[in-house]
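Q: My labmate handed me this sequence with no annotations at all. I'd like to see what the chain might look like in three dimensions before we decide whether it's worth expressing. Could you predict it?
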Amino acid sequence: MINQEIKSAIILLVFCIMQLSLRSQNTIVTGYIKGFTSRQLEIGYHAGEKSKTDTVRVVKGKFTWKANLAEPQQVYLVFPNMYYPFFAQSGHIQITGIADSSESFVVTGSKVQDEYIEFQKSLKDLTDQEALLPQDNREMREEEKKALDVKLNEIEEARRKREDQYIAVHPTSFLSVHLITERASYGTDYADVKKLYDRLGVTAKQTMSGKALAKRLDVLKRSAIGNQMIDFRQKDTTGSDVHFANFKGKYVLVDFWASWCGPCRAENPNVLKAYNKYKDKNFTVVGISLDDKGDNWKKAIRDDNMPWAQLSDLRGFNNEVSSYYGIEGIPSNLLVDPTGKIIARDLRGEKLQQKLGELLN
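A: Here is what I predict for the chain of 361 residues:
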């Protein structure tokens, strides 16, 4: 027969297990998307460190999704012709909107989403300015392209400053962790991200997202300004091995791109302009493609008239060099000096021309 002390301990243990279960299984999202006629909807999220997609049943535009989210995260509703990101967390979250109009979507019940919406409102003057600018510069004169680049850089710099201010004022906010993670994903210098990470509170750093950000910093550190570029080896379009050490003694733009990447293809003429201008002044370009189909890669090289060394292991985003340096978005590049030292990264548009002009004119 179980004595009273053992019985009490069992009851306490069961209670604790139930509480832990409730804490990790308490995210319920219900939605009504008016005019949405499909019978199912995909929802993308992270389960631990793995990406996961759930398919939920939709009846007359209504759906319910339940998940085990240990902490807040950005979740994606995936529609046939668009996707809608929002921040989910513990509790009951409701989403309403009109099909094919993400601007009509309203999310209630998520504190992090509320914070995100308020922060986006604080950027409205910048997004309004950006919306008024031309989206296609292919028909522009050179001076017009330069002016557009300057304006876009000014808007981006202003946006970054406001993000920095938000993080400084909200060091324990999940949104702050998210903003730094975004910055770390898209071509940002290690020193910049490390400075922001150091502003986070201890509780934010101890979240799963905070710990993942710390790991990301370890990778970004490899491409920190002042570090030596690794002596990698990849095959060129003929299948021959090429060592990066072969280019020592020159300024080298290591250019990460792919044939399927629209922004990369749009930037290629700018890189070609730089190459033609400075190729006789101790400068060259080494392209590293994140393609996985050789024919597409080679055709893009011909179509975009890129005469410099082109390398790839045809493993897509698993390319050995891009993975080592944590390249998660392209176009991206590293500028290396004649000693093999990294001196700049992610120079695009007029920034590339200005930097090379400072070094080589």
